[in-house]
Amino acid sequence: MASEKVTIEQAVQKLSEANNNSNGRLNALETKLDEIHLNLIEQHKNMNMDVPNEMMNVQETR
Q1: Of 15, 17, 22, 62, whose Cβ has the fewest other Cβ atoms within 10 Å?
Q2: What are the tens digits of pLDDT across the range 1-60?
Q3: What's the distance, Cα to Cα, between the start and end of the chain in Å?
Q4: 21 vs 16: CA distance, rounded Å
Q5: Which residues neighbour 6 within 8 Å (Cβ) at sequence distance 6 or greater?
């Protein structure tokens, strides 16, 4: 197996690039998680609004 010699500067550059890529992916995941959270909150609000209407409909039919 051939070993590749790299300078400290090259190693730091590669680590920096890898870190930037990881940070970018993390930010994208956090954004997606925020979107999912907001959607769940909205769905929950909609469900809570629907319940009283359904209850009212049941009461009207009695």
Answers
A1: 62
A2: 567 899 999 999 999 999 999 999 999 999 999 999 999 999 988 887 766 666 656 655
A3: 83
A4: 9
A5: 14
